[in-house]
């Protein structure tokens, strides 16, 4: 912020300064406007900020939307990286490149985006590698069917220039010609730049001559190149003279011109000249930014004059965005072997304030150290940097961080070197430092690599501990013996604690499980107490996750139907359980789900109500809180225990009974007669007695409209005499206010507003609009007093909140009377009182127009004080633009530190478009070229919109060239609007228009025709002169596959292959193909499709793999499933397939083959071994459902037995809950009930006679008797408890007391004061759990 | 409703610098009470830990002692220590359900 404030302070003096010059240069330099866009020339950083991801392909093909979204996400990531840091990392770029390749057919602007990113946006990559990457991208995308136009060739040229790549311009032109692409102005400009780079003035002149012969404008960029060209040719005099030539041609030298000159001096190490030039620049209109000076630093360093660098660095102003720019400079310098200069620059970084404040240790220079490590700079050099960073308190732990980078990059040798240094400094070296080095080796089972790292550990005297051994070292060896041998060979100790214990560990893990299991079983008793809570908690989440894992997503109807079944089942034995279930159901649904299913849930609640289910108060409150937090409080009102519904209904009935039929008819009549005022009034006289309030209201409104204020007031009085409780609605009141104001009866109008407030008239949005019109009408008459009085009343009464719109009439009133001072005062007053600054643009425009510097200064001071400097600058900018003072406007918008405000730019652009002001709009677009974070495509899109309105194709075409010059990547909509303009004027479109309609049309054709005839006939063939790209074929194939027409799809594929060389199905099409094959029972074919996809580096969809595995399962193909699982594990980007897909289907395959034991064994392992999938992912509902569907009793028995075993011995209830739900689904309620059966606690007791925790057990037994109303047993139990010395808690006693009372007997002990209800929930749940365990 | 207080003697520690691992954490947090458990999850892909860990005390006293100290500075880095709210995934809970409403 400091940078911005500084620059703005400079500007404080400027408004008046500009105004004094207004007469001389009103419209700014015409010439530079004509040759506009030249400024974008060389700056590497600025243009880079303009990359935008193209918008989503608007073709709404469901099939490909998902992939498109993924791609958009990647592009957005690229974009945000550039915006944030001004650079892209190689990894990110490559990932997006591969994504685009995989997705299929790259569009023109995708290609442009990728190419554009291969230059200075990659400061971390060596120049040659960047160009190589650009070529790789170029070739690969071309191969994939991208078509290149002039913009792509120009982008490639730019990349060549940025990467200092040596190439032959003539060959380049020949290549373009061969491809049939016409070079344009930008192409020539960049070729000139290329010649000049080598100091080849002759070559540059040839092209310049060519441009002149073609009548192409010579822009600033060309002259800038010539400055460089002459200098590189050793002719400084000519170089300097270019500036004069420019002025002679009417072009002012811009910042880039001066930067070119400064670079020329820098390459010579001529500091005097540099200083002179910098001073000269200060006296011109242009100003150099830090980023410009950074180029000079770079040139000095590259030419070996780094001793001068500090002097330039000192001149930097640390503007906004300095740090990312300077970081990029450092990175480039390091990449190109100038790390010492980079370090000089690094030391000038402003230390970040907040870091020191927050108490964290400073970490300045992390990026620097990391890049040094990545670039393999000598360790001792890096160590020197570290020392200096630490000594000057820039970084607390630089060596440690350097080590971190080495480990991250897995540079073992460097890492060991760094650790040695750390050790010398007395820093600890810990075993886990070596783990990052070991992971990859461990994964690859690369024992040599591992031994190398271990050697490093030995050198550093760090013994490998147990973890290192057992997680990272031993698993890489085929067996313990192999490891032992390797260790011996290296001379490692075999007696170390680490080795021995990890050896034991590995033996143990392959040993017996029995001990482990028994250890697990011992705490069973305590666990019984909370089983039920967990069980009821699990049903809803299991149910909901079930709806996700189901082959066909379950409809909510279905889910709620199952819910209803569950509730009726639960209610048969405890209503508390139902309540608890309900609570958990609500809890496991997301807010969005609840909101979406509000109606269904309401239905369900009503159903519960009709079942007579009553929710206890505490749970009711819990559910209510949940629903409140989901923002659906309405839902609870309809539900279960509230009696409000009835009350509402009866009130409604009462209202109906009260209605007066005559009055209603009369009102209607009056409304229809309202056009004729007199008639309506007469009618009123006739039916005086039957008049209802509505009729009066209509009449009052009518009178107001006709300015008949007296009659309106009369009617109002009459109405209140008849029924004082009735009040008019807001629109009638506002109408009265309006007519009173209009007739100058201001105080009465104010009273009317007050009455509105008193009667608490509801004020709606429309009312606010009406109020604005009242105020505005007064303002238009210049009636300042009235506006102010009404406005104050409205706001103080709180009838409306002060918005900019509502405040504006006060300013308008002053503007109407040409009282600018008053208008400014009024605006300022609004700001102070209401925080609104209405019509400030108009006020400032007026002041600029009038040349009132004093007031303008006042306005600017006020705006910057209230709204900040940035707003003030924009206000001033637009005022200058509006009044045609473009020169001054440019000066403002080029204020260093100013950043783009898209909303404000849009506001002005729309204003220009609506007012057909091309000149103004174009100037704004030109001026904002270097504006920080300015969305260039957006701005050019405004220009094109206006071109379209005026049907000006020449301007549109020139705009396109300008965009290339600026390296703007157009969004698809921009290209489309441009193509539209050119086409409608019969012009050739020189680029590939993004396809929108073509594929969807064909798809549509196919979708409608395929059922009757062969769809591929509808593909327009070449004879029509239409050449189809691969995309339409692709869409058609996918559409056909999506509806299962495999044969047709294959025919289309053949056609495509015949017409487009290298055509192949993309990921989505192949995935669909697999699904289609599987559907037809061709699992083997599906398998081979999958294999060929993976070979082609394609990624299958999750669904297709799931379907394939299911199909293999139902065919009993265990081996096939294993094969797919292995294939999926080898996938670079994991699909996040649940391992249950494989496990469940393997089980199904076993069942199919009649091998029930293997099926059970496989599934049981999932739940007994801790490392299996957890949570909702671990569902085996699929297996239960299939078995139930197939009515496979034997399998069901085995599996149920397994579920019970799991619940009983392993406390794993997942299988049990899955089974429970599936039984309910299959409507086997009795079986489900069996799972919940109560009263088997005694069985439990006999099973475990030495069950120790009787305090836990007896209360449940007591609860059971309570439910069964079995006083006799309860008494016996109580006695037993007393004899055994088990203390009965309050709840137990309470239950017993209730039983006594129910039986009409007196309670033989003091009844505890607790309410049983509050506790029933918890114990009911516990009971359930025990039942589950026992059943 | 259904509010249950968990019997937890665990603290959750975050912002752990990469240079510290299990042993260092156990040593440091041992000063507040006997540490029963110390879990520092490591990322199998990168070989670095994830910057957080769980420390389980045998008594509530240890937990309270650890929570009372602020800030926890270890080798120049400030660790963030808070009562463990989420039960670690896959961990067998031994919470007691106590009805409070």
From TrEMBL, chain A:
UniProt domain PROP1-like PPR: residue ranges: 211-319
Q: Which GO terms describe its biological process?
A: regulation of mitochondrial translation
Q: What is this protein called?
A: PROP1-like PPR domain-containing protein
GO molecular function, a single term: mRNA 3'-UTR binding
Q: Where are the PPR repeats?
A: 184-218, 219-253, 729-763
Q: What is the lineage of its organism?
A: Eukaryota, Metazoa, Chordata, Craniata, Vertebrata
Organism this protein belongs to: Oncorhynchus tshawytscha (Chinook salmon)
What PANTHER family does the record tag this protein with? LEUCINE-RICH PPR MOTIF-CONTAINING PROTEIN, MITOCHONDRIAL (PTHR46669:SF1)
Q: Which domain of life is it from?
A: Eukaryota
Repeat is among the record's keywords: yes
Pfam families listed in its UniProt record:
PPR, PPR_3, PPR_long
Mind telling me which PROSITE patterns this protein's record contains?
PPR (PS51375)
Gene this protein is translated from: LRPPRC
One GO cellular component this record assigns the protein to is:
nucleus
What residue range is the signal peptide?
Answer: none
Q: Which NCBIfam families match?
A: PPR
Supply the alphabetized keyword list. Answer: Repeat
